Amino acid sequence: xxxxxxxxxxxxxxxxxxxxxxxxxxxxxxxxxxxxxxxxxxxxxxxxxxxxxxxxxxxxxxxxxxxxxxxxxxxxxxxxxxxxxxxxxxxxxxxxxxxxxxxxxxxxxxxxxxxxxxxxxxxxxxxxxxxxxxxxxxxxxxxxxxxxxxxxxxxxxxxxxxxxxxxxxxxxxxxxxxxxxxxxxxxxxxxxxxxxxxxxxxxxxxxxxxxxxxxxxxxxxxxxxxxxxxxxxxxxxxxxxxxxxxxxxxxxxxxxxxxxxxxxxxxxxxxxxxxxxxxxxxxxxxxxxxxxxxxxxxxxxxxxxxxxxxxxxxxxxxxxxxxxxxxxxxxxxxxxxxxxxxxxxxxxxxxxxxxxxxxxxxxxxxxxxxxxxxxxxxxxxxxxxxxxxxxxxxxxxxxxxxxxxxxxxxxxxxxxxxxxxxxxxxxxxxxxxxxxxxxxxxxxxxxxxxxxxxxxxxxxxxxxxxxxxxxxxxxxxxxxxxxxxxxxxxxxxxx
Length: 495
Prior knowledge:
Elements: H1 3-6, H2 10-41, H3 46-53, H4 55-73, H5 82-98, H6 102-109, H7 114-142, H8 148-174, H9 177-193, E1 207-208, E2 211-212, H10 229-235, H11 240-255, H12 264-281, H13 289-325, H14 331-364, H15 366-387, H16 391-408, H17 411-417, H18 425-453, H19 459-475
Antiparallel strand pairs: 1-2
Helix pairs in contact: 2-5, 2-7, 2-8, 2-9, 2-14, 3-7, 3-18, 4-7, 4-18, 5-7, 5-9, 6-7, 7-18, 8-9, 8-14, 8-17, 11-12, 11-18, 13-14, 13-18, 13-19, 14-15, 14-16, 15-16, 15-19
């Protein structure tokens, strides 16, 4: 084990952040370039662009849960998370290289349409990212003790990852999206393959070497039935409405079957979501540690899910919004406005996690700080909806949105990780990701249809504002997890 790991130095936190940075950079490349390439080079409409983006959440459902369950139990290449980080990183790098060559791939295969190839490339890229993403986050919980040290791990993850995200959008805006893609492929490969060999993982989760890290009274044991499909469905109960709609919408879009008239199914899914999430949020986190942890985890799922409807709506339809709101811009100028907007978000998200969010979380609590950040994000979205008619106003408000974005991709991991069994971190990290990918499918399919049919594309940011505002209110109902600040790391173990 490296000395920096034993001492939990800042250098170790930076090293620990690089695999997640690789996957974050791959996502930044995708966000910056995918809609732009599909719209300008291949002239796909909003509906089809949304369908291509739906590949990502589908990959998340498949990849993160399954890989999470597997990585909790396996051990090879001298690691539990290491093999999946490396495999996912290599595949993601290859798919980034494929991204600007969708037309070449289509021509070489002799297929009739570009849409199918675009979906396959996007699906494979996202599957690769998700194979690696869960382990890159789980490994932070594996090698850090609960409390401030773990919160520091996730805020450092966001600071390092966010800094490279800034670089990604800077390259795209100042140079060229194609340069961004090819440089991204190299960076993703290096950051996902090399750092894992310098991080020593604990052979047994939930234990230091030679002693229990947390008593049985405080840490629920991993049940062999926990990973069953039925139990996982019970755990994600707040997300059932999202799940049903996602399945329905994908069947309708891919099969060509006419949808149920009068939006009856959509209304049913919405009512189910409201009922189940409302039921979850009013529950008291009381009872045994295991019952308390399950309720707390479900509240996190409920609150986090609405954040991602707003965020995904922004990512996918930002291009359409700018094109409609500022029609004088040509394709290159449109791409630059989108890139500078996301550059601004990531600049803020790179700066404030360690410098601001970490000390505020230590003083006021992670949940309160996160909920407040989400509220500021909603306010930024609302101002863009009302007054975002110039690039300058968009950039200013994107800086405000960036505060919530910084919180979204750092603090929930620290909050969630202290509500679930350490021995099943991969499983729960995968289930937690469903609160991201299922809302993403709703945004890609349901919201996409709404925006496509709307005469005024500014409705994009009204949807963002409303969903994020609800998320902020929900987060205030999540109980602050207790810290175990006396825990220490020794010999590669966790708390």
